[in-house]
Specification:
CATH architecture of the domain at 2-84: Roll
Radius of gyration: 22 Å
Strand order of the largest sheet: 10-9-6-7-8-12-11
Structural class: mainly beta
Number of helices: 5
CATH class of the domain at 2-84: Mainly Beta
Length: about 325
């Protein structure tokens, strides 16, 4: 009862807040917490409510909803309805994974995995929505503007390759090795896309699988386990997996056994086997949620940030003009 009252008071306090983008955690007793989900663990969810960070036990959570945009307290009921039902830029599911057969999952989600080609090489990627937005690694398209994407559409049980050459770089984050691309060819179909899961919900030893184009061998499936969730390399934390990762896999998805993306494969130890690494999907969500901050600049293609020139010091002339 005490916990319920505390959450009820918290919800009342949050009613006065305004979020540019908010997630909603529905609690038992029809209470709710609104804020930005920072992490989702097996026993709790960490939420930033603006002035503090809460750890909400999963035992009191009945539902988690991702909301594209929150409204101010002065919003009308009709505006509130529009905001809640606004289409999501990407689909996310942080619920515990229900294991399925890899063969069935590949048939279901394989079309959403693509090849990303540049004059210098190729990598992999995957669609995050039906409108042609896709994720890949920054190093796959680094320094390139001539990019094409090869998509495998399934028709009557057969796969047909389509190549799209009007590809725009939307946002890049070279520090986390992520890039957001958009296919802008005319008369494109609605693309199959993949749901983003939760790397926080993984445990060491969980089965995972990857789909990509190692050495150009498109639609290659490899399976393994999570060796560790917190492998530190050059100041960043990666998922380490025994699923085989090779050049060409870069930018492709690492899946849990529910078919949700838990990471983006980006490197391996070259002198060993079964030592692959993936960027945790939580970093991908953060990148997408703040994609405007990482917007690609044609004036400075290797850096998403625009630095302003510092003001020059005013040159004061002597009174006598000398």
């Amino acid at each position: 009862m005490l916990l319920k009252k505390q959450f009820a008071l918290l919800v009342l306090a949050l009613c006065a807040a305004h979020f540019a983008r908010a997630d909603t955690i529905q609690l038992k007793g029809n209470d709710a917490v609104t804020g930005t989900i920072l992490a989702e663990k097996s026993d709790a969810v960490v939420v930033d409510v603006g002035y503090t960070v809460l750890v909400v036990p999963r035992s009191v959570i009945t539902k988690i909803s991702k909301v594209a945009a929150a409204v101010s307290p002065a919003a009308t009921a009709s505006n509130l309805l529009v905001s809640v039902n606004a289409p999501q830029f990407y689909s996310a599911d942080a619920r515990p994974a229900t294991a399925r057969d890899v063969q069935d999952l590949v048939k279901q989600i394989g079309e959403a995995v693509v090849q990303v080609r540049t004059p210098e090489g190729l990598g992999s990627g995957f669609f995050i929505n039906a409108d042609g937005y896709l994720i890949t690694n920054f190093h796959v398209i680094e320094g390139e503007t001539e990019i094409s994407v090869e998509v495998y559409h399934q028709t009557d049980g057969q796969l047909a390759r389509d190549t799209y050459k009007q590809v725009r770089i939307v946002a890049i984050n070279k520090f986390h090795d992520l890039a957001l691309l958009h296919i802008e060819d005319k008369a494109t179909p609605k693309f199959k896309f993949i749901t983003l899961g939760s790397a926080d919900a993984l445990t060491v030893g969980d089965s995972v699988f990857a789909i990509g184009s190692p050495l150009g061998l498109e639609r290659t499936v490899t399976q393994g386990i999570i060796s560790t969730k917190t492998r530190e390399l050059e100041g960043e934390l990666y998922l380490q997996t025994t699923a085989q990762i090779n050049p060409g896999n870069s930018g492709g998805p690492l899946f849990n056994m529910a078919g949700d993306v838990v990471g983006v494969t980006n490197m391996k130890i070259t002198f060993g086997e079964g030592l692959g690494f993936a960027i945790p999907v939580e970093l991908v969500k953060n990148f997408l949620d703040h994609r405007d901050a990482f917007a690609y600049s044609a004036d400075n293609p290797n850096n998403p940030y625009r630095y302003l020139e510092p003001p020059s010091r005013t040159q004061q002339k002597p009174v006598d003009g000398k």
